[in-house]
Amino acid sequence: MGAGHDHGGQALRAGARHRTRLWWAAILLAAFLVVEAAVAIGTGSLALLSDAGHMFTDVLGIAMALAAITAAARARTHSQQTFGLYRLEVLAALANAVLLTGVAVYVLVEGVRRFTEPPPVPAAPMLVVATAGLVVNLVAFALLRAGARESINVRGAYLEVVGDLLGSAGVIVAAGIIALTGWSYADPIVAVLVALMILPRTFGLARSAIRILVQAAPKHLDVAAVRERLAAVPGVCGVHDLHLWTLTSGMEVASAHLQLEPSAELGAVLATARHALHEDFAIEHATLQVEPATGGGTCAPADW
Questions:
Q1: Whole-angstrom distance, CA of residue 261 vs CA of residue 253
Q2: Which distant-in-sequence residues (6+ apart) come within 8 Å of 102 by Cβ?
């Protein structure tokens, strides 16, 4: 028997909130990207170019996040997509991680190459553009911060903005050093440092997305504890084929077979089991199959 709540509806309502903030962030970042890229090419600054590259992945990542949210909302009415297209959100997050990793690797390679003979870079344009970029990224950071706690998809865009924010701060530092000392090595050094700071975050995002895609049990849920709690429901004498996985951010799903004692009341067992999963583990959607005990006799108490 199946039991669950309209958690998909909650996810869609959250998606609508995220969509508005993502749109504003995308427009703001895209407008500034054109300016930053032009100045980066004109000055030859690798640090500024790396920041522009990060901002490009910000815009592209937000665009993919918006596409995933829109597709998930439309798929809800499709009879053949019984779970919707919530996994598109996870795929978009993984793609964001791959893109940002590519940018970081390029900056690392180019930065190491420039250590041999760094080209002269004008500090004033770097400083002006980097400061403006810092302000733009702070605004985007504020727009996406709340949604990053609820959605892995928004978290991907959020982490890219965090990386870009770090990049802008790094360019400001590099521009200040060049302006005060004329030391051109500050440009590739800062670019490499920013890339190294971003890589661990992208790896973490990719790891989270892959865990969902391979249907691993959520990290915050103890499978043994869930099994024990279901086995403790009055009337249940055995639990097997227990599966826990994440459909998309904040949407944990469970399925299990419950063996019942002969005297158990089916409705009461299902209601209690649903309530336990909801209250103790925040699992909103569960498919529970009930089975009679083998041989029809009274079951021995579960020993796990």
A1: 25
A2: none
Domain boundaries, the chain: 2-213, 223-296
**pLDDT tens per residue, range 191-209:** 888 788 778 878 888 898 8
How buried is residue 241: exposed, middle or buried, by Cβ count under 10 Å (0-12/13-18/19+)?
Answer: exposed
Tokens 């209601």 identify what position? 271
The fold adopted by the segment(s) 2-213 is: Alpha-lytic protease prodomain-like (1.20.1510)
Sheet bearing 285-292, strands edge to edge:
2-4, 285-292, 251-260, 236-248
Total residue count of the chain as it appears in this document: 304
Position 272 confidence tier, pLDDT thresholds 50, 70, 90 = very high
101, 61 Cβ separation under 8 angstroms: no
CA gap 140, 121 in Å, rounded? 28
> So what's the pLDDT on residue 277?
95
d(CA 170, CA 164): 10
Residue 58 exposed, middle or buried by CB count within 10 Å (0-12, 13-18, 19+): buried
Q: Which residues contact 270 (CB under 8 A, 6 or more apart)?
A: 1, 3, 288, 290
Superfamily for the 223-296 domain: Cation efflux protein, cytoplasmic domain (3.30.70.1350)
